[in-house]
Specification:
396 residues; mainly beta; Tachylectin-2, Chain A; seven-stranded antiparallel beta sheet; five-stranded antiparallel beta sheet; 1 helix; 1% helix; 39% strand
Length: 396
């Protein structure tokens, strides 16, 4: 889900990806909020329970949600290494594994995977599942996983990248949804919910007889690397997703951008319910609709509300800090879930936080995990490694 390459630092401009004429990653015109004078104390890293020894090879954000009875559930792992597993507990620190999951559908090879479906932009669906968004409906107890998928991993001979029919990176992302009626033991594929405005292929390789793809040297690698934020205050669920800008000539990343789509919570976030944020409103369809980036310079977004600050928090990772072996976690603030401050490094000198995945959670035995206080838990992980955890104290 993440990949490294030789990165050159230079001024980056991608022109006319968006129909509005806005440069990719450019912020909306409204003035950004500011958050000044904060101090953070970050504890020493400790192992979490999400380790290889416990059957978890995590490669993304943790999926956490409470049911209508107050029980806390987690859906972790990915299908590339090991299996997905369901965990239950009362707090994020006492979660215990209950079982590994099964699917009612195939994954992997195009034409067989995901019920033989096609992506909304045309190619046959293929590859693995990374369940980085997870929600338990408190009304009926059904589980929903809003998952990341890529064209270049786990599809065997049908995998493809921006360059060729091949396995690996740079490949293209989509976001799908699956549902479980038995507390996550078995899952049914429900469809694709968020797809980039840009085609998920280039003219260097056109899969499945598709027509013209992205022609520019600077391309976008699709919508993914996301998290779910269910907002009880306004009746919507939000998916914050990323897109990577990639330079085909230099064969390296050239920027990270965060976008947002939302659906009414009563819709369960199923296909057709999502609207992307574009040019000041949630007005474009989740699949292939136009989209306005709400943040640049951060990847793999995770959102929470902090009751101590009375602000929304957005955790992302800084790619250059990660490559340099520095603490990569950075925080932005918002009053409205749309306009965010420039990312600020949480603990740049912490080499143990040189990771790409940061999941914020409260540590209480009740309430939504994405509603924080003055002290909260931060999980940090990499590709297939043990997940570590720290506690964060605001204004110690």
């Amino acid at each position: 889900m993440t990949f490294r390459s030789c990165v050159s630092v230079f001024t980056f401009c991608v022109g006319n990806f968006l129909a509005s004429g806005r440069t990719v990653g450019q912020q909306p015109a409204a003035e950004r909020p500011q958050q000044k004078g904060l101090e953070w104390r970050v504890s020493t890293s400790q192992p979490s329970q999400f380790t290889n020894a416990n059957g978890v090879w995590q490669d993304g954000l943790l999926g956490l949600s409470r049911d209508g009875h107050g029980n806390l559930w987690a859906l972790v792992g990915h299908t590339g290494i090991g299996e997905l597993s369901v965990w239950e507990g009362s707090t994020v620190d006492d979660l215990q594994r209950k079982y590994f999951v099964k699917f009612s559908f195939e994954i992997g090879e195009a034409g067989k995977a995901f019920g033989g479906s096609t992506y909304p932009d045309g190619p046959r669906a293929r590859g693995w599942i990374w369940p980085s968004g997870f929600w338990v409906d408190p009304a009926d107890g059904k589980f929903y996983a809003y998952f990341h998928n890529e064209t270049g991993w786990g599809a065997g001979a049908t995998g493809y990248t921006a360059f060729a029919r091949d396995e690996g990176e740079p490949d293209f992302r989509h976001i799908g949804v699956m549902e479980s009626s038995d507390q996550g033991r078995t899952w049914d594929f429900k469809g694709w919910i968020i797809t980039s405005q840009q085609p998920s292929w280039t003219n260097l390789y056109t899969p499945d007889g598709m027509g013209d793809g992205q022609r520019s040297n600077l391309i976008l690698l699709g919508a993914g690397d996301h998290s779910l934020f269910v907002n009880s205050q306004d009746g919507y669920m939000y998916i914050y997703y990323g897109q990577i800008a990639y330079d085909l000539n230099a064969k390296s990343e050239r920027g990270d951008y965060v976008y947002v789509a939302r659906a009414k919570t009563e819709s369960k976030g199923l296909p057709g319910a999502w609207k992307k944020y574009f040019a000041g409103s949630f007005s474009e369809p989740g699949n292939m609709g136009k989209e306005t980036a709400i943040l640049e310079g951060g990847a793999v977004p995770n959102v929470a509300f902090d009751t101590y600050l009375h602000k929304y928090l957005l955790a992302t990772y800084n790619r250059l800090s990660w490559y340099a072996g520095k603490g990569a976690c950075q925080i932005s603030f918002s009053d409205d879930l749309i306009h965010w401050t420039e990312p600020t490094a949480l603990a740049l000198d912490r080499k143990d936080l040189s990771q790409p995945y940061f999941t914020m959670s409260n540590m209480e035995a009740s309430g939504p995990t994405n509603v924080l206080g003055r002290v909260f838990r931060l999980f940090a992980g990499n590709n297939g490694t043990d997940v570590e955890k720290v506690s964060v104290v605001i204004n110690p």
